[in-house]
Amino acid sequence: MKEHALVATVSRAARLALVLALVAAAVPPGAASARATNWVVEENQRPGTRSWRIAPGTPRDVEGFANRVSVPIGARFRLFVNTEAPTFKVVAYRLGYYQGLGGRRVWASGQVLGTSQPQPTLDPRTNMVEAPWQPSLVVRTLGWPEGSYLLKLISSTGGASYVPFVVRNDRSTADLVFQHQVNTWQAYNDWGGYNLYEGPQGFDSRSRIVSFDRPYAGSGAAGMLRAMPLIALAERRGLDVTYVTDVDVHRRPDTLLAHRSLVLLNHSEYWSSHMRDAVLAARSSGVNLASFGANGLYRHVRYKKSPLGAARRVVCYKIGEEDPLWGIDPAAVTVDWRDDPVPRPESAIMGAMYVCNGVLADLVVSDPSAWVFAGTGLTKGDRIALAVSGEVDRVFEGAPTPANLQILAHSPVGCDDSNPVADMTYYTASSGAGVFDAASTDWYRTLRCGIPRQDPRCDVHAKMITGTILEAFGGRPAGLSHPAESNLDAFGYQLTDPISP
Question: What is the pLDDT of residues 4-34, one digit of tens each?
Fold first, then answer.
């Protein structure tokens, strides 16, 4: 019998009733939704600024990276900066709402002598690019509040770029923990000409390992900028929130158990085994999971150390037979999670799973009675314009899927698939945990209502849906108040491998 096979209905129902009763008894009646927390409210009342922005056309004559993706409050980190400018400075901006300005200036360095750093190295076996640079300055985060940061590098000759960074609170018990998908940022980072998708000769010349020991291409913070609308929404509401990265969850998997909900951002694609196990353990303990994106938990990775420290290199061969662990440690082979040699489809956790990309379509409401639509006034068949785009998820009938999966929106999309739809979904686990999947990597665009800029897809209904989910998921296990009710039959879905999570 499969380890995820359904158990007898009567025994499961009895266990579920007992679990929910015990959890309900332990949760105060007033804790059904996320608590406003004074420090978030007070922090966002401090003067904000738009000076964190880099103006279009600004030259990138300065670039850099940090030796950590995050540090605990008050800790030090090193910055490695490359510029031909005589000097540069660093200004740290914490991201939030801040009167609609998006950021607050927290710290600034003095002028630092510019250094023209060595050329990057290229590993001929894995096409891994690294920047073997010397440190330019040491920064201490004393007095910096926990949160998401942009470190703005500004050259004396007028150039600028970002280094995204997280200051975490390792003692936090915040209702909501937002997980920055630094693995995915690095997977797509083609600084030096290579990433996990391609090299100069296309896919075959791609990197098999990518390193955090190099700057990000472009402005340096595309991934963090996509997170800004959700960060601003949560902090404007004064929700009890803290921030971590993929690497933090990998190295400290128990950290999720201190919170009521894990919130994934738009594109949390690359996961290690420790990360996946941490989410499963959290869900089993009643921790909710909200994914305001798609293509989550799709690629399997493992970490290696670099000269700068542990978990600084992300390994993902994609083709199993290329991985040195093929035939040696099948469960560690870095392929798509749904593929051989040890298939573990992401649908078992996410509910739906990745189907295609290049989408641009309206979201179509299919179950307006669902709690996530409360107060929106939306009815069956109503649309949110262009809310389903980028990469999308749908239900796969042959994949392990929670038996009580509820489809909230069922949206036709134009991609090459036998069932061209995207499914926004919700289910509840036997622990009472709720799991939501927005099923669109560009959901953040519906929330981008002035921060970091105004988006034509900004939508009041999408903001209400997102706020409702954050409020509920910041309280007790969502299944206590909002048990999922499967409606798969209404869409013609017949699961061949229903599971009881």
Answer: 333 333 333 333 443 334 333 333 333 334 5
Residue 310 host element (H or E): strand 309-315
255-306 pLDDT tens trace: 999 999 999 999 999 999 999 999 999 999 999 999 999 999 999 999 999 9
Phi, psi (rounded to 5 degrees) for 185? -55, -45
Cα separation, 226 vs 11, whole angstroms: 44
Paired tokens of 363 = 């979201």
What is the pTM for the complete model shown? 0.92
For Cα atoms 84, 90, 96, give the angle at the middle one, nearest 5 degrees: 140
HEC per residue, 208-274: CEEECCCCCCCCCCHHHHHHHHHHHHHHHCCECEEEEEHHHHHHCHHHHHHCCEEEECCCCCEEEHH
Report the run of H or E that residue 140 belongs to, with start and end: strand 137-140
* 8 A C-beta contact, residue 227 and residue 444: yes
Mapped onto helix, strand or coil, the DSSP state of residue 141 is coil
Backbone dihedral region for residue 495 (phi beyond 0: left; psi -120 to 50: alpha; all else: beta): beta
Burial class (CB in 10 A: 0-12, 13-18, 19+), 325: middle
Contact yes or no for 424/407 (Cβ under 8 A): yes
Sequence-distant (6+) residues with CB within 8 A of 56 are none
Please check whether residue 407 is in contact with residue 437, taking contact to mean a CB–CB distance below 8 angstroms. no
Contacts of 327 (CB under 8 A, 6+ apart): none
**Residues 6+ positions from 122 with CB-CB distance below 8 Å:** 128, 129, 192, 194
What's 9-45+170-499's CATH class? alpha beta
Q: Count the alpha carbons within 13 Å of 330 in the hemisphere toward its beta carbon.
A: 7
Give yes or no for a contact between 292 and 444, defined as CB atoms under 8 angstroms apart: yes
Gap between the Cα atoms of 454 and 99, Å rounded: 15
